[in-house]
Design a protein that fits this description.
The chain is 25% helix and 36% strand. The chain is α+β, with helices and mostly antiparallel strands. The protein has two domains: 4-224, P-loop containing nucleotide triphosphate hydrolases (Rossmann fold), CATH 3.40.50.300; 229-285 and 296-360, no CATH class. The chain is globular and about 80 Å long.
Length: 362
């Protein structure tokens, strides 16, 4: 039995604005699922519908096989953690964490035992009697997580919970969050607009755009095999080249582009003869000086270096293919020959066909 099922779930506001359209998803027990997309795509609205804070317009929400579509939030076996943590500043750490247990009507002894156990798990026992607003961002984040988990929910819902943290602290909490989820085995549904969080933390990613699901898959599937133009442009750093006259050849296909013939895997939505977009990850492309490589062939095009810089161990080279199109190539800074390339140098860029994806337009 799935922990969570969304069947044709949608949300339309009274003015006719469609926030979420026909959302279908099945989440297995103990799975970590991330909703990823730009602001306004409907991911937080979907999370609030699961929690019961937002009424659905149509469809059904099932938790462990029970339809909770009309069940109020406090009666659902979920906990929700918000970006601003929603802590009570006048309460102590202990009081904040134990707040959800008050609703359950536990005895004082049971409440204390559960609160003590979760505070110990999160390293908060030494701050039990401090006011929440006197603690650091990382500590407040742990309080919010502890408060959400102390009630032992079937599903923990997280709405961009790391958005208020600085980059270094965010990485620390990301690691803690994944370890915690594996240790507890609780189903997590996580909303984020940060690709690194979704790709690094989740078992599966739901990519959303304008209220619709664009693709559902593992981080590897979404990153390496985008199903739509939006996913190809949104995830990673892909070069996007227009292609035409697609011809299927076994499990691969070839298309004609302004820079030569390209071969790659094709998305299920495209068919023979179609005009498509060729998506190539920046790190999948190899760049060589023009005098050191053949100039023509499949998945191979010529250009000139228009920009070059390095960030840590990653080198970034922008290659101008013509007056309108350029591609970004990522390479290691330990490749001395590439790092010696200068602006204006002629180069050849190529890529393996299994790293190229052909997707439909729109």
């Amino acid at each position: 039995m799935n922990d969570l099922e969304l069947i044709g779930v949608g949300k339309t506001y009274p003015d006719g604005t469609v926030a979420v359209s026909d959302f279908d998803l099945a989440v297995k027990p103990g799975e970590f699922v991330a909703f990823l997309g730009p602001s306004g795509c409907g991911k937080s609205t979907t999370l609030r519908m699961i929690a019961g804070f937002e009424k659905i317009s149509h469809g059904d929400i099932l938790i462990k096989g029970r339809n909770v579509s009309a069940t109020p939030p406090e009666k659902r076996p979920t906990s929700m953690i918000f970006q601003n943590y929603a802590l009570f500043p006048h309460m102590t750490v202990r009081q904040n964490i134990g707040f959800g247990l008050d609703v359950k009507g536990l005895s004082a002894a049971e409440k204390k035992a559960k609160t003590d156990r979760i505070m110990d798990m999160f390293g908060l026992s030494g701050f039990a009697d401090r006011k929440a607003d006197r603690l650091s961002g990382g500590q407040r984040q742990r309080i919010a997580l502890a408060r959400g988990l102390v009630v032992e929910p079937d599903i923990l819902l997280l709405d961009e919970p790391l958005g208020a943290l600085d980059a270094n602290l965010r990485r620390v909490i990301q690691n803690e969050l994944k370890l915690l989820q594996r240790e507890l085995g609780i189903t997590f549904v996580f909303v984020t607009h940060a690709q690194s969080e979704a790709l690094g933390l989740s078992d599966r990613i739901v990519v959303m755009n304008r209220g619709r699901v664009e693709q559902v898959g593992t981080p590897y599937e979404v990153y390496t095999s985008p199903a739509t133009e939006f996913v190809a442009r949104f995830i990673g750093s892909n070069a996007i080249i227009e292609g035409a006259n697609l011809k299927v050849q076994g499990d691969m296909a070839v298309v004609d582009t302004a820079f030569g013939r390209m071969r790659g895997r094709y998305a299920a939505s495209v068919s023979s003869g179609a005009s498509v977009l060729v998506a190539i990850p920046a790190e999948a492309m190899r760049i060589q000086p023009a005098n050191a490589a053949p100039a023509t062939g499949e998945n191979r095009f010529q250009g000139t270096v228009s920009m070059k810089h390095a960030v840590g161990s990653i080198g970034h080279v922008k290659v101008a293919l013509d007056g309108r199109q350029s591609v970004d190539v990522q390479t290691g800074t330990d490749d001395e020959a590439l790092m010696r390339l200068a602006i204006g140098d002629a180069v050849v860029v190529d890529c393996p066909s299994d790293r190229v994806t052909l997707v439909g337009r729109g």
